[in-house]
Design goal:
The chain is of the alpha+beta class and 345 residues long. It has a single domain, classed as HIT-like (HIT family, subunit A, 2-Layer Sandwich), CATH 3.30.428.10. It is built from 8 helices and 14 strands. A 10-stranded antiparallel sheet has the order 4-5-6-8-7-12-13-11-10-9, with helices on both faces. Strand 9 and strand 10 form a beta hairpin. Helix 6 crosses helix 8.
């Protein structure tokens, strides 16, 4: 079966007050995710990110709130795991520290700080800076998988800066492990299985081949990782999709896969920073070993749409569960490619 990059082109017809009320047409597309079939609205709007906030004022305000992730507070303000799960109470890898999340998102949760630095700029994350935290997160997932064999779903996440939903300036990851998957990985795994039943091939191999052949969004192969701008973006601005062609579970996430991912992630964040975005969401989706599924990650820039401070999530995303994107990903490929070439050369 050929991978379908399906889209329907349409337009709004109106009398435009910015053009002397002359008749105008504004085009848009309805795209369908090649795996899940979810519909997404894509526009071509002259959007520019609003000016960044005063980072120094934001940092000082967050410090005044007694950040529990800073070194002077971490040992007394963050919880411990039960000894039967993590005998030491917390997981330490280099500068990173992982401890339970007080927000009960799943049966087993973790928050992992990158280190003692309270703030790291959006374009300043390097693979070396990120490696300890992602290694600690993998260690936690492996610990949970061995402790509770009935845990089948794992996700590794990052909210960076307030527009992403983060309540902490101090950089940190969040890890969730449980018995019931969230909506997105559940749809991915179900549709991957159905694709295999219909075609006797994995969706992931066919999709990577199709993106390379189209040469409209594909960014790079970095070691054992595949990078592309997503045909059907999840956020208000085109996002980056990473696929691990040989990795079926974060339990078996190899060092070379982690390191290649961090190179691509650093390039993605550099690209977002160059485009004026200072906030993002990241999720890596995984189950246990599954021959039809591949571990994959989405990195989505987040923004305030106007200087009044309105969110990029509206009724359309929250209630209709329909993403809207202000730019077609194909229009941004050259800029993203440049950031990747600079970052991985």
């Amino acid at each position: 079966m050929t991978i379908l990059f399906r889209k329907i082109k349409d337009r709004v017809r109106l009398k435009n007050p910015f053009k002397g009320f002359s008749t105008d047409e504004i085009p848009f597309e309805i795209r369908f995710d090649p795996l899940t079939g979810q519909s997404i609205r894509v526009f071509e709007l002259p959007y520019r990110p609003v000016p960044r906030p005063d980072f120094e004022a934001l940092i000082q305000k967050s410090r005044a709130m007694n950040c529990p992730f800073c070194s002077e507070s971490l040992e007394t303000a963050t919880p411990l795991y039960p000894k039967e799960l993590v005998p030491e109470g917390r997981i330490h890898v280099g500068k990173a520290v992982l401890f339970p999340n007080l927000l009960p998102l799943d049966r087993y949760t973790g928050v992992c700080t990158f280190g003692p630095d309270h703030f790291i700029g959006p374009g300043d994350f390097t693979p070396d800076i990120m490696q300890d935290a992602f290694t600690a997160a993998r260690s936690f997932i492996q610990t949970v998988a061995a402790f509770d064999p009935e845990t089948h779903f794992f996700n590794l996440n990052w909210n960076y800066m307030p527009p992403s939903g983060s309540s902490m300036i101090h950089p940190h990851l969040q890890v969730n492990c449980g018995h019931i998957p969230t909506y997105q990985p559940r749809m991915q795994q179900t549709c991957s299985y159905h694709y295999f039943l219909q075609n006797n091939r994995t969706f992931w191999d066919d999709y990577m081949d199709a993106e390379k052949a189209a040469a409209e969004r594909f960014l790079a192969d970095i070691g054992p990782t595949f990078w592309t701008l997503a045909f059907a973006p999840r956020g208000a601005f085109p996002d980056v999709w990473c696929i691990f062609p040989e990795c079926r579970s974060l339990i078996e996430w190899k060092d070379e896969e982690r390191d290649a991912f961090l190179k691509g992630l650093a390039a993605s964040l550099r690209y977002f920073d160059q485009e004026g975005f200072y906030s993002f969401n990241l999720s890596i989706f995984s189950g246990r070993e599954n021959p039809h599924y591949r571990v994959n990650a989405r990195i989505t820039p987040r923004m305030l749409l106007r200087e009044i401070g309105n969110s990029d999530q509206t009724y359309y995303q929250v209630l209709h569960r329909e993403p809207t994107c202000v730019r077609p990903p194909e229009s941004l490929r050259e800029k993203a490619l440049m950031a990747f070439k600079q970052g991985v050369s």
